[in-house]
Design brief:
single chain; Rossmann fold
Length: 478
């Protein structure tokens, strides 16, 4: 079985969110199970690409509308990621800082459609030149969702139509909306197929992929169900295509996320010395943020946006502390400028109980997972979520809203074999109640240790999920 994953992100090459973590791990586990699984992504101006050696495997030219462009396909020579990594070098399109956003302006690049269109055209032109075609083309999110559409709709790619395509929706909030006039930049499209690109009067890349892919997956079954009534305008389409849809929960790379071997934490530990290891790492963490190690410590790691529930945190934390509550709160991430400003103010207002590090810092994130007692995930939308799985791996108890993948991966501690804290409603009040439950658990050291032991015994590795994807691939090839 030969599978080609096409994606805008892949950890550790280029990352903006959870998409990168999935694409950087799933192919590795598939290869371990005997699947020849590749990743193809754009050649960004990023340190990983600058610091690794690549070899040229293909060179060609293609066109976007009337304009021709040259491209090269290069392979990472050392296979350092555990799978073949190919990058598509298109001069002038991706050789810039930032993945999606121009760091200087803070806005998406002006030629967003041209960037992803040229990438997808280059990938299809390359695959068309293969003597032996792949068994599956697996596309990820709207950035590559026009691949299934072009295979089924453009005469240039009719030789690829027998290849099954899978489209995974990592976040249904982002569709790739463009003016319909942009269709003329793509290779010639059969007239009777043009309408498959349109949704709500505009070109919608994700909708085109959903309509034309052989199978549509998303990253948890609960999120697949939620998309039927909440997908930013695609609800009717999701319902219409539901029979070919499947929810497969993400896994985590347990080689990277392993407290026994993690080089990014101050003190490694295993299930055998869990209590001591957590205590040592908590002391390091609290010293870093000038907090009190004897208090329960709640952390938030992620983008500071409404989607992640970050807008609930200022009021909830202030309410808790101003009413006499005793706990530490830590925030790591970047996002909404207004929220960042508020968190800076709170660091002064609640000195010794709250602090924020407003940056992307992978090392600090690992230390927080190792040292915090609880991880806050009050998400408004959470297709799968990986942070709760990372936290559980490190014996940190997740406090989550029961939505999407959080609902599928966290069992409330009140239930048999429960190991987390869940709440239902997106509100400051419900989040505050959940935090107070955490404080109560922290005061019962025996109960806390039992929850931590249950947490680290869980298996959220990619093996089970990789098997489900492999079963899907085989079903499409029979």
């Amino acid at each position: 079985m030969h599978v080609i994953h096409t994606s805008a992100e892949c950890y550790p090459v280029a990352k903006a969110g959870g998409l990168a973590d999935v694409v950087g791990a799933l192919p590795k586990y598939q290869n371990e199970k005997g699947v020849d699984s590749w990743v193809v992504m754009p050649a960004y101006d990023v340190p990983f690409i600058q610091q690794h050696e690549f070899e040229l495997v293909h060179k060609d030219k293609a066109h976007i509308g009337p304009h021709w462009f040259t491209f090269q396909i290069l392979r990472e020579k050392s296979n350092s990621l555990g799978f073949p990594l190919y990058i598509v070098d298109i001069p002038g399109r991706f050789d810039r800082p930032g993945v999606y956003i121009d760091p200087e302006s803070g806005f998406p690049y002006w030629d967003e459609f041209e960037r992803y269109a040229s990438f997808q055209v280059a990938v299809l032109n390359w695959i068309s030149a293969f003597a032996q075609k792949p068994d599956i083309i697996h596309c990820h999110d709207h950035h590559t969702a026009l691949i299934p559409f072009m295979i089924t709709s453009c005469p240039d790619y009719q030789q690829l139509r027998a290849i099954p395509t899978v489209l995974t929706i990592h976040n249904g909030e982002y569709h790739g909306w463009y003016d319909m006039g942009k269709r003329f930049l793509l290779p010639y499209i059969n007239e009777n197929r043009v309408g498959l690109m349109e949704w709500g009067g505009r070109l919608n890349a994700l909708s085109a992929g959903i309509r034309t892919a052989w199978s549509v997956t998303t990253v948890s079954q609960s999120y697949m169900d939620e998309l039927k009534y909440s997908s930013a305008g695609l609800e009717g389409l999701i319902n219409a295509e539901y029979q070919k849809s499947l929810g497969i929960i993400n896994g985590i790379d347990t080689d990277v996320w392993n407290p026994a071997t993690d080089p990014l934490i101050a003190h490694t530990y295993s299930a055998r010395d869990l209590k001591k290891g957590k205590a040592l790492n908590k002391e390091i963490l609290c010293n870093y943020f000038n907090l009190k190690p004897e208090l329960p410590t709640f952390a938030f790691i992620g983008r500071l946006v409404r989607e992640k529930g970050a807008d609930l945190l200022p009021e909830m934390i202030s309410w808790f502390l101003n009413s006499g509550g005793q706990a530490n709160f830590v925030v790591l991430g970047t996002g909404d400028p207004g929220l960042q400003h508020r968190f800076r103010e709170m660091s002064r207002e609640h000195l010794g109980f709250f602090d924020a590090s407003l940056q992307y810092n992978e090392k600090l994130a690992h230390q927080i997972y190792a040292g915090a007692d609880f991880l806050l995930m009050p998400s408004r939308v959470e297709p799968c979520g990986l942070n709760q799985m990372y936290a559980l791996r490190y014996g940190t108890i997740p406090v989550v809203r029961a939505v999407g993948g959080l609902k599928d991966t966290v069992i409330d501690m009140s239930l048999d074999n429960g190991y987390g804290i869940r709440f239902d409603h997106y509100s400051v009040e419900d989040l505050l109640t959940a935090v107070r439950r955490g404080v109560s658990v922290f005061s019962d050291k025996k109960q806390l240790l039992n929850l931590q032991k249950r947490a680290v015994a869980l298996d959220f590795s990619w093996y089970a999920s990789a098997d489900k994807y492999n079963q899907l691939y085989h079903s499409l090839n029979t």
